[in-house]
Design brief:
The chain has 769 residues and is α+β, with helices and mostly antiparallel strands. Helix content is 24%, strand content 25%. The longest helix is centred in the C-terminal third of the chain and has 24 residues. The relative contact order is 0.14. Bound molecules: dioxothiomolybdenum(VI) ion.
Length: 769
Amino acid sequence: MMFSEFLEFIQSGQDGQSSTQAQPSAPPSAIIGAALPRVDGPLKTTGSATYASDYNFPRMVYAVPVCATIASGKIRSIDTAAAEKMPGVLLILHHGNVAPLFRNASGGRNSESRPPLEDETVYYWGQYVALAVAETFQQAQAAAAAIRVKYDADKFNVATALDDSMPAIGATGGPRVLSKRGDTDSAFASAPVQVDATYVTPAETHNPMEMHATVAVWDGKTFTLYESSQGVVNHRNVMAQVLGVPKENVEIVSRFIGSGFGGKLFPWPHSALAAVAARQLNRPVKLTLSRKMMFSNVGHRPRTQQRIRLGATAEGKLVSIQQDYRNHTSLIDDIRENCGEATPFLYSVANLQVTSALVKRNVGTPTPMRGPGAVPGLFALESAMDELAIKLKKDPVELRLAHDTLIDEEKNKPFSSRHLKECLQVGATKFGWSRRTPEIGSMHKGDLILGWGVAVASWGAGRGVSEATVNLRSDGTARVSSGTQDPGTGTYTIVAQIVSDKTGIPTDRIQVVLGDSSLVPGPTSGGSTATATVIPAVADAANSAIKVVLASATRAKGSPFLDKDPASLAMTAGRVHAKGQAPESGVPFQDVLRMANLASANGDGKSAGLGSDTKARDYSTHSFGAQFVEVEWDPGIAKLRVSRVVSVIDGGRILNKTTATNQIAGAVVMGIGMGLLEQTTYDPRNGHPINDNFADYLVPTSADSPQIDVTFLDIPDPMMGEYGARGIGEIGLAGVAPAITAAVYHATGVRVRELPVRVEDLLTSRVLA
Ligand code: MOS
C-alpha cells in the first residue's frame, strides 16, 4: 500500500463495518495526560533495546549493495569474476541471475510493481545494480567494490526548476485541479490588493538516527525479517507479494525503531534483496544501508515549486486563494506531494483553486516525510499570508484571526474540534506578541536585531482499523499487544497508560508487546494516526478482559462475589469490588483469577475506522496549531539564529505530556532544519545527491536549538472516541519554516521564498544595528 492509498484508507475507514464511537464520558484517571517517562526508556538508555541491525544469528552472512554511478541509462555489462574469487564471497546477485520477484499468479510481473535488480535500466544515481554477499561485512564490502559495472549512459535530468519548458523529460500528470470553488480568475483580477509569488522547497532527505537495515532469516518455509519499519503488517503483506509466498510465511519484527519521519512507512528494495539472498544461501543475511545509500534508495521529500495568488479587499478581506504547485517525482513512480493538504479549509474564502503537476526527474522515488504535502504547502501559503499582511499593513495574527472558520468550506462540514483561534491567542500571549513593532529591523537586543514571525499549523486527523489483545494475569501483571510499532514517539508508553487507566494496574506491571506482524493486526505509524487508531482497540480489549475477571468473580469457589450479578461489579485500582463501594472493599483481580484457576483473563478489542463512523462522517477532522518564532540577526557578521519558539498545538486530548512535548519540540528543531539548513543537492554533472553525508547535509544540532515553549490546548475531539486524542507526530513541523522566514523578513527586510534561508540571501539586507 502506498501512502496516498494509506491516507484514503484511513479517511474512508474501509473496514466494512459501521460504528458509532462512544462520546467522551467520565474524565479519565490521572494516568491519562500524565508526564510519564517512556516505559521503554531504560532499555534504550542502557543499550539493551534491539534495533534491526542488532540481531545476530549463527551462520549469518553480510550483504552489501552496489549502487549505480550514472543517473540514467543501461547496464552494458557486469563483471563479477574478480569479486567471486575473493575470500569469503558466497553470492553475487544482479539482474542477470536474480530469481524472479513480484510475479503474479500466472508468472507475469505485476505491472504496479518494480522489483529490485529487475533489468538493465538505470533510472537514478545510486540505484542498486548488484549485491555482494560474503562471510564478513568487510569481505562483502571488498567484493562489492570489485564488481565492475559498465554503463551506456543516457541524458538525464535533475534540474531544479520545475517548469513546463524543461527539456528532455518534462511534466507529466498535470496540471490537475485538486480543489475548486467560486471563480479565482475574476476574483483575483479584480482584487485591489494582490500577492503573487512563487515559493520553493528543496528535496529533503529523511535522516533518522537509525539507518535502514534488514536481517533476513529463512527456515525453508518462512521468512523472518528484522526491520526498521513504521508498518510491520503492511511490510509483511508487501514482502509476501514480492517474495511470492503466503502472508503466513512472512514475519516482520521491528521492536525498536530509531525514528523514521516517514522514510520507514513502506518497504524498500533492500528488504527484498536480503530476503532473496537468505533464501538462496539458506543462511541468515544482514544488510545495512550506509548513510550515503540513505540519500538515494529509501525516499526523500520531493522538491516543490508553488505559485500562490492571494486577492484581498482594501479592508483586508481575503477574496481569493490560488495555489498552483509542482513537485518532482522519479521516473518509476508518480508521487504527488499533496501541497494543498491544508489550503482548501484553513481560511474562510469564497474563491479557491488548487492545482498540482508532477515533473519527472532522475532521482530515487520520493516518499512521505513528516507532514507530507502540508508542511511544504504551508510554507508557501503562510509565507503569502505574511506578505499580504504586510501589504495591508495589518498584524499577521489579526489577519489570520479574521479569516478563521469553524466550517470546512471545501467539504461544507463543521470541524469536529477546531481551536486555531485559541492557538493564535494563547501563543501571542506567551510569546509577548503585543510588544512587536512591525517596522523592519525595529526591534533590538543589544547589538542584535530581533525578528518576530508567526504562521499557523494544520494536519489531518484520522483513525483506521486496529485490533489489540489484553491479558490480565494471575501474578498481578498485564500484557497488551498489537501489531503496530513505536517509531520512538511513545506508542509503548501510551498503550500501557490506556491499560492502566482501564484496570488500575500500575504501568510498571504492564508488559506492552508491539513491533511484530504475527500479533493481531495494528496500524502503520503514519499520518499521525497510530495513536487514535490503536487506543480504542486497546481500551476495548481491556474492557473485555475485565469482563472475564468480573464473570469469574461470580463463579469461582471462595470468591466473595459468588453468584452475584457480574453487572453489579467493577474493577478499580486493580481490585474487583461491588459497584458503588470503595475498591478497598473488594479483592485484587489476581486473587479472583487464582480462585477461578485461571492463568489469565484475556480480552480482544477492535477499533473502527473514522470513515465508517456514522457520526464522524458529518465532520471534518484536523489538528491545528500556531508557531511563533524569534530570530536574532547580527548584521555585523551576517549571523542568523532562531532564538525562541512558542508552539501551541490543538491536537485533541494529550495522553502523555512528556512524549507529546517531545514530539512537538523535536518537530520544531526539524523545522529549523527545514528553514535554515536542509537540502539535498543533485549534482547537475551526474545526478549524484552530492551532499549525501552528515558533513554536507546539514541538520540542526543542540547548538542550533532555541528555547522552545510547547503548549497543548488539550481539548478532547468528540469524534475521536472515548479518549478524544488526535495524532501529534507531524503537526509540530507545520508552520515552523514560514514563521522563520517571516521573522527573517521582520529582522532584515529580505523575503526568502526559496528554502533553506542562506546567509548569502541576507547579505542584501539594508538593516544596520
Ligand atoms: Mo509520517 S510522513 O506519515 O511517517
